[in-house]
Amino acid sequence: MVFNIKKYFMIFSFSIFCLLFFSVQVDATPTVSGVSATYDDNLTSSYTLGGTADRAIIDWKLGDSSFSLVNLPFEGGSNSTWTKDYSSYSNNATVVGDATYGSTTGYDGNGSYYFDGGGNQESVRVTGLTIPQNYSVSFWANRQASSGLHPYFSFSKTVLLKVSSSNIYWGGMYLCHSPSNSEWHHFTLVVENGAASQAVLYVDGELCGTGANYLTPTANLYLGSITTLVNDNWNGYIDDFKIFGRPLSQEQIQSIFQDGFETIVSEELVDDEEWTLEVTPNNGTVDGLSVESSSVTIGDAPTPEFSDYAMILLLMTTVGGFIYFRKQDD
User: Which of 87, 230, 300, 321 is most deeply buried (CB count within 10 A of its CB)?
Assistant: First the structure.
């Protein structure tokens, strides 16, 4: 039998090629592991990204439904016609006009949408929403224009948060002075209706202004342009847009501003509620498989454990007491 070195070398080379090729394919997938939610006064997230994942998309769930009604982080999968809602309500958005998606233009170096302020009504739109009377809207914005009256967002083009050269308005109600242009700022509008109808605006986690609320949200959400008039359209970037079906506490607003959506603060929690954490890994282009944590029941705080020092102190106290009483007996 003749040993064909060339033949076996080719088989060996092909095997190495297949091994490397398929290893690269596996590694090219964004993954996440070790997803858990921990309750200790606040509710905190924990997870480990793997593969090519360089960012995590967080969705907290209260019972079977997402805490947020709309969760638009504008990450991988977003494009010039569509962007995904990561809440359980599937309020995916369509992109109209020349709104431009950038995978690295966001406040955190990840995805966002840019609106050039032209008159072609470019916008990111979500239709068919059901917004309760009390709600909160959270987003990041970077305004590029210094003049005109520009809407951050609106409901059906009539209920809108807008900014002039120096002021921010909820409809026609003045709220506060606008922050600096050409910089990222975090905004949260908290709207409450009823006996004390009011709209409260927080900028970068701090109270900016309060006004009476006389506006009722409608089913259609618009980010960016709303008219064909150049000076009435948003010029700049918008990122990480969320709507919550309740008034958020200032503590939660500050937590989102400082750390993203990683924590649900104690002010938002009620005993016996069941929460879960869902994490979707992303690499700026595609999502990996979402992983959900085990449920956590609020009020079930972990049982305190004695530290080594506490155990030593307890032992010393016990021994000392034993010696003391023995001497008393003598």
Answer: 87
Structure-token pair, residue 42: 């606040």
Distances (CA, A) of 59 to 15, 85, 187, 215, 260: 42, 10, 19, 28, 11
Residue-level pLDDT at 149: 80
pLDDT tens per residue, range 10-62: 655 555 544 443 333 334 688 989 999 999 999 999 999 999 999 999 999 99
Residue 215's nearest CA partner among 131, 148, 122 is 131
290 strand-pairing partners:
none
Q: How far is the C-alpha of 110 from the C-alpha of 292, rounded, in Å? A: 23
The set of residues, in sequence order, having a beta carbon less than 8 Å from that of 180 and lying 6+ positions away, is none
Q: Which residues of 228-262 are buried (b: 16+ CB within 10 A; e: fewer)?
A: eeeebbbbbbbbbbbbbbeebebebbbbbbeebbb
pLDDT digits (tens, 9 = 90+) for 110-142: 999 999 887 666 789 999 999 999 999 999 999
Nearest to 119 by CA among 277, 234, 280, 244: 234
pTM: 0.82
Tokens of 314: 């307890």
CATH class of 29-297: mainly beta
d(CA 81, CA 91): 14
- Give the tens place of pLDDT for each residue, 270-297: 999 999 999 999 998 899 999 999 999 9
Q: What are the residue ranges of helices labelled H in the chain?
A: 5-27, 250-259, 308-329
